[in-house]
Write a structure and sequence with these properties.
The structure is a homodimer of 217-residue chains.
Chain A: E1 6-14, E2 18-20, H1 38-41, H2 44-49, H3 60-65, E3 72-78, H4 79-82, E4 106-110, E5 118-119, E6 125-129, H5 133-143, E7 148-151, H6 155-163, E8 169-175, E9 183-184, E10 199-204, E11 210-215
Parallel strand pairs in A: 1-7, 1-8, 3-4, 3-7, 4-6
Antiparallel strand pairs in A: 2-9, 5-6, 8-11, 10-11
């Protein structure tokens, strides 16, 4: 019996359902939509992550942000989270996060252009895989047996795992803004998604963010 | 100086932005999406409206639902709220609400097929108009000078007034469900909508509903 859960944390979309703006570039990974992450950047947990342990605020938003790493031993992310653009890799690209990425675990990057694994400082190793969601999950669990798997985004990747019924917990944050364009989380294939889960909890925070949790028992 | 405000109340959408499902029929005005209104149907205010003054629940949801009528002297609604389908009118159609509709004010129905006004019991009179949002507003204010104008929906009508910058207050309720298809509120033309308003407030309720208020000072 496999008790390892697949969890999504801090996935943030606008009111109109966009999780990133456009165009996505090396300088602006969220395109015109960077402000949807303002709630997260204001938290103590984010400031910890960037080496400023006294900075940022505690409270409801931070309570959610802080759960990102608990019990997680591996992450699965889409190509769009790891690098801008699509198609063959620019050889020199090592991720958005510099030489010591904040993951500190193996990370499986889903891509139609697999390449050699890339070991970074601080315990993060990127593995590149052309697998289906189910097979990527098997791979991730082999890399970190007995731990939970974080599904890190972006929108297309989370949508594919949701459509396949492979998500056990999803924390979604909705920023009270309209982006109008970009990458959408919700596809027609997700009609009735809430019924996949045993509980749906909704919590608003003083920043105007709505935190929605979908959870399987 | 005109202090009459244009207000939207209880406009309800799913997480993926649909305000009604499909297909819309005379029996099912919300198509497959009727459950997005469950939060509203559980309120004391709704029960009052249907002649059951002791029924329903008070609380956060009811606090929002109860503000529907305060200071309102006239409503503007789209064809889609008044009747199913499109094109020329079925002659016998007198609205979804029976002989005594719950509005008790003049109502301007936007349609490409204007026809004679229709006086109902209890103070509701339907006026049918092919006007632009701005002209419909002038007409509504002539029908009920000095009062606020309620913009009653559906999605296309509210979207058109938002795009024209004519809304002073909008209470939007988001139900924690995915409809996957139907009429969407958000269009690309609404990018940055939040900046039209001076304040955006977000309140979650025990029913899992997120109430978002957009308000001009």
């Amino acid at each position: 019996m496999d008790m390892s859960r697949v969890r999504v944390h801090n996935l943030t979309i606008s009111l109109d359902g966009y999780g990133a703006g456009e165009p996505q570039t090396t300088e602006l990974p969220f395109g015109h939509g960077a402000h949807i992450m303002d709630w997260f950047k204001a938290t103590r947990s984010f400031h910890n992550m960037i080496g400023d342990p006294e900075g940022g605020e505690t409270g409801i938003d931070d309570d959610f942000a802080s759960r990102w790493g608990e019990g997680i031993g591996v992450e699965i992310m889409g190509r769009g989270k790891y690098a801008p653009g699509s198609g063959p890799w620019p050889d020199e690209w090592r991720g958005w996060w510099g030489e010591e990425p904040p993951f500190h675990t193996p990370c499986v990057v889903l891509t139609h252009h697999p390449r050699e694994q890339l070991e970074m400082a601080g315990g993060t190793t990127f593995y590149f895989s052309d697998a289906s969601p189910a097979d990527a999950l098997t791979h991730a669990r082999q890399l970190a047996p007995g731990t939970d798997v974080r599904l890190g985004g972006g929108m297309t990747t989370v949508g594919a795992f949701l459509e396949a019924g492979l998500v056990d917990y999803m924390h979604l944050a909705i920023a009270p803004v309209l982006l109008g364009r970009g990458s959408r989380l919700w596809s027609d294939g997700l009609e009735g998604l809430e019924s996949q889960f045993d509980e749906v909890r909704v919590t608003s925070s003083p920043s105007g963010t709505t935190h929605i949790e979908f959870e399987c028992a």
